[in-house]
Design a protein that fits this description.
The protein is mostly helical and about 200 residues long. The chain contains seven helices and no strands.
Length: about 200
């Protein structure tokens, strides 16, 4: 009986020697993967906070698109993300009615703020609901620059596609005022040079 117990202990020791390092590697990789996922979710949240008021920036758009990848298992986050997608893809954006435009802009802003808040809760950053409805700092010059760039692109495309002509301002230059065959009037430099040539005493 004692011999059988010794054999069992030997087998268990052998299994521990063989499987111990493998289990250790698996646990280490699992911990590293969980930490990487946590860090990526936190970075996404930071990006959303950092780009508040800059919804057209590539970083903000990329963060919004990565939410289903990093928060697929968070039901509340995915619900808020779906509401934001509904607001952003609403046909009312094409409406020319000012009241409708204001309504859809507010709807998208509310959805964006709620999404950022629930993501903050998911990563451990508790945010007051009222605070999240305040836009972050964004210089007016940045918004103006984006609008001007869009106008320049549109004007350039209109010219390329033949929808808009190129404006050309015709002007009359001094050389065009001379009658053909008559020499042009001398410039002030030419007059000064001629004066010095005729009177050597007039030197600089």
């Amino acid at each position: 009986m004692m011999e059988e117990g010794t054999r069992l202990l030997d087998w268990l020791t052998l299994v521990a020697i063989v499987l111990g390092p493998l289990i250790g590697i698996w646990v280490t990789r699992w911990i590293d993967s969980a930490k990487e996922r946590k860090d990526r979710r936190w970075e996404l949240f930071v990006t959303l906070r950092r780009t508040r008021g800059l919804e057209l920036s590539p970083d903000h758009v990329a963060a919004i698109n990565m939410i289903p990848v990093l928060f697929a298992d968070d039901k509340e986050v995915m619900v808020e993300w779906g509401r934001l997608m509904d607001a952003l893809n609403n046909p009312a954006w094409e409406s020319g009615d000012e009241a409708v435009s204001r309504g859809i802009i507010k709807s998208a802003a509310d959805a964006r703020h709620n999404l950022t808040r629930v993501i903050g809760e998911a990563v451990g950053a508790q945010l007051p609901q009222k605070e999240e409805h305040r836009l972050g700092y964004s210089p007016v010059a940045w918004s103006q620059e984006l609008v001007e760039q869009a106008e320049v692109r549109k004007s350039f495309l209109d010219v390329l596609n033949g929808r808009s002509p190129i404006r050309m301002i015709a002007g009359v230059y001094q050389e065009d005022l001379h009658v053909a065959g008559e020499p042009p009037e001398p410039t002030s430099d030419q007059i000064s040079e001629k004066s010095r040539a005729s009177d050597p005493s007039k030197t600089d």
